Amino acid sequence: PQHYGSCVCDNEITEEYDLQIIVPVYKVEQYIEDCMDSIVNQQTKYKFLVVVINDGSPDRSREKLCKYEGLDNVVIIDQENRGLSGARNSGLKHIKAKYVTFVDSDDRMMPGAIEAMMKEAMNQDADIVEGSYKTFYNDEEHEGSRHEYAVTAKWLGQLTGYPWGKVIRSSLFQHLCFPEGYWFEDTMLSFLLYEQGKTFVTFDDVYLYRINPNGISSSFRGKPKVVDSLLVTLQCLEDAKTLGLSMTAQFYDMFLRQVRMNYSRISTLHDSNIDHHVFAATCRAKHQYFPTEHTTNSHLIPIELALDEHDFGKYSVLCSIR
User: What's the CA gap between 127 and 101, in Å, rounded?
Assistant: First the structure.
């Protein structure tokens, strides 16, 4: 199919809390208590609500969640399986806080994470505050992504493409959701959400990301659904148009970076016919959405030229370079 779910929607927002934490749950019985304890035991002066979505999990995850049902600031939503996007979207449908964050149910928040992120958000009146993260596996921690402390008025690619490890002003989600049916649904953040922010803060560690060898980010290679990388890009471009977002130079550079990302994923199918179709669709998208844009980024100019010249050979070589 050309399209699955759109990123455009209407969410209800009130501000009874400072922060709403959305936790999608599916087949994580061995991790969910560790995750939830790291959230509910946060020491902070900020008022937070934890919205847990049991996405039709067939294991004992729901049973493990029973111990948290009595907490005043925990709400559990049970639904039939809709996938990660559908679970997150259920948590976004009725936002009851000024800011929103996401925690994947096999990960952990570091102690003091809420206090640190919300303090920066309030002090800077920020749209997005993102902390660094560490990775862990079998309780061994390793460096993940490091941030210098910075307050900026433009998103210049310094934020990660993940929804976790950051607090986001809830109004940015008023007409946005994660596109359902796709892999790589987080593409929406870079294309549509970050583009609408005006003040960004980056700073120290707040999140522990579990290395999961069975997760999509580790096991997508060679699977036909990697073509979603292109399809979700096209969906985001169309949704940007629907939302009336300006196709700025920054937005265009994001598109060119995504071209390289799409190639790196889809080329794992080792099918030159598919690679040629993806290239043709990418050239059409550039012409449709960015007919007059030209990048000034020296790293992206060669890719732009390959698309303008319809030169598949140059495109495939450039996108293969790490």
Answer: 12
Are residues 315 and 303 in contact, defined by beta-carbon separation less than 8 angstroms? yes
Distance in angstroms (rounded) separating the CA atoms of residues 28 and 108: 13
Amino acid at 76: I
Residues 6+ apart with CB under 8 A from 249: 293, 295, 296
Residue 17's nearest CA partner among 75, 86, 77 is 75
The predicted-structure confidence for 68-89, as pLDDT tens digits, reads as follows 999 999 999 999 999 999 999 9
Tokens of 265: 């994923």
- Any bridge partners for residue 17, and if so which? 97
**Residue 181, token pair as written in the block:** 């049916």
Q: Bridge-partner residues for 118, per DSSP?
A: none
Q: Which two tokens stand for residue 113?
A: 């994470």
Q: Is the pTM of this model over 0.90?
A: yes
The span from the CA of 310 to the CA of 303, in Å, is 10
At 138, the pLDDT band (50, 70, 90 cuts) reads confident
**Contact, 22 vs 53, CB < 8 A?**
yes
